Amino acid sequence: MECVVAVDVGGTTMKGGFVARDGTIHHFERRPTPRAEGPARVIAAISSFVSDLSRRREGLRPLAVGLAVPGLVTPTHAVFSAAFGWRDVPASAFTDVDLPVALGHDVRSAGEAELAYGFGGDDVLYLPIGTGIAGAVVLSGSLYGGAGGWAGQIGHIPVRPDGLACGCGQRGCLAAYASGGAIAARYGASSAADVVRWVSEGDARAVEVWDEAVEALALALATYTLVLDPGGVVVGGGVSLAGDSLLVPLRARLSERLAFRPAPEVRASALGVRAGVMGAGLLGWRAVGS
Amino acid sequence: MECVVAVDVGGTTMKGGFVARDGTIHHFERRPTPRAEGPARVIAAISSFVSDLSRRREGLRPLAVGLAVPGLVTPTHAVFSAAFGWRDVPASAFTDVDLPVALGHDVRSAGEAELAYGFGGDDVLYLPIGTGIAGAVVLSGSLYGGAGGWAGQIGHIPVRPDGLACGCGQRGCLAAYASGGAIAARYGASSAADVVRWVSEGDARAVEVWDEAVEALALALATYTLVLDPGGVVVGGGVSLAGDSLLVPLRARLSERLAFRPAPEVRASALGVRAGVMGAGLLGWRAVGS
Questions:
Q1: B36 in A contact zone (CB under 8 Å)
Q2: Would you call A263 an interface residue with chain B, using a CB distance cutoff of 8 Å?
Q3: In chain A, what are the domains?
Q4: Is the pLDDT reported for residue A136 higher than 90?
Q5: Exposed/middle/buried for B172, CB within 10 Å: 0-12, 13-18, 19+?
Q6: Which among B124, B211, B228 is the top mutation candidate for probing chain A, defined by the most A β-carbons within 10 Å of its own β-carbon?
């Protein structure tokens, strides 16, 4: 069966697999992203992952490689990534296999997968909450990039103008409260999933950190709603696996923040953490011309 | 000469005139909006204004009437206006003259005038700051309305989550700090223009109120920039007449709030307070089919 090799390179975890033309994932695997070891080691780890996947055929015939990465990206270059310290890395550097390779932005690609295979909707914010937060802004049925391709940086809007310092250099950013990385770091936990578990056990500090994360998200979504009047918001990424622990209070707080208009529907992604790999698959299929 | 009668109904002032097919205004006149006297009196005042303008020909031949009003509007009905207490007022109620009448949203219409006759740009926020604040969101060369036509409510985004109560029922809205109405009310002045004048004279309370207004605008524009990456921001309405007293500190504070990306250009509207009448003119011309 024809397929593409697809890898979604996240801040802490790489997710990879084979994606068929209809979006079906035929193998799904995770590996740690060796971010702490520097720019070159992350590139080498991606290359090994792609090579290992390409060898692992089982009746699958890979036609191309799609790589979803963070930062500023063109189909042929990872132009800039603050997360990984990359500058102008060509697509060919990410793999030794003899297949066409296409790069794309991780959040945009996952948003395209949501658009193609998920809940759909013409005017939707797709908001993956992982190590960081960015948004795919879907307007009138298409991803919107803005004047210079930088749209969707919702993780860095100032929800608390005099609030916590953010790694980006600003203060009070949404991501400083509500990203998986921030939730874990504020508690001193190794992951946001641990904090969510401790919330359910009534741990006071976990409740406080989670509460501030949910309120920051409600503020950001209230702002997005007032400016762009979306038909819905689809929350994805690792933090969305909290399910109702996230969605129930988030919906309530969003409604409280909107006095004169109803809140849009807020749902968890139907694709879950696989949206990124499916998005990388779309990049790969685009590279083979379909 | 063929023209349309155009009236822009603002919160405190109505502006009206004749608009030629090329956007030229051939007569421009202001009247107070009798908002305090109730919904029916505002409608009657608009009707008188249109009748008086229609009689005042001087070689002009009016073909239609365009009315730009606040709230939720269709071409045939003022569906809802919190500002004026209107509900489902038909276009015909606004005039006795025997001409086609078209209604439109004041900020959207002014935004269309900016698009047609002003600075232009494919991805621009047009932000008129008058008695209240709303935005016309121009994306890829068109006004964007959102899933339900409610996009652009930037005046009510929560820039200070625990801040001042706003008339809309929310807290910390941009408009509670930076609208002309709020600037005047916070000082106890009769207009924002007075406060601007006193700022230049070094009045401490005026400086404080103005400073908080500019900071609130910078926060809102930083958020808009991060989410939508506009090519530029065009500030209009009465408060934009403050010119450099507004633009110089606003540009500086917007740049301070954006750590990892440049700020978009922030300009004052080239059309000034006439944008609303030119927008109402576009509505009128649309009613005659051109």
A1: no
A2: no
A3: 2-110+273-287 (3.30.420.40), 121-269 (3.30.420.40)
A4: yes
A5: buried
A6: B228
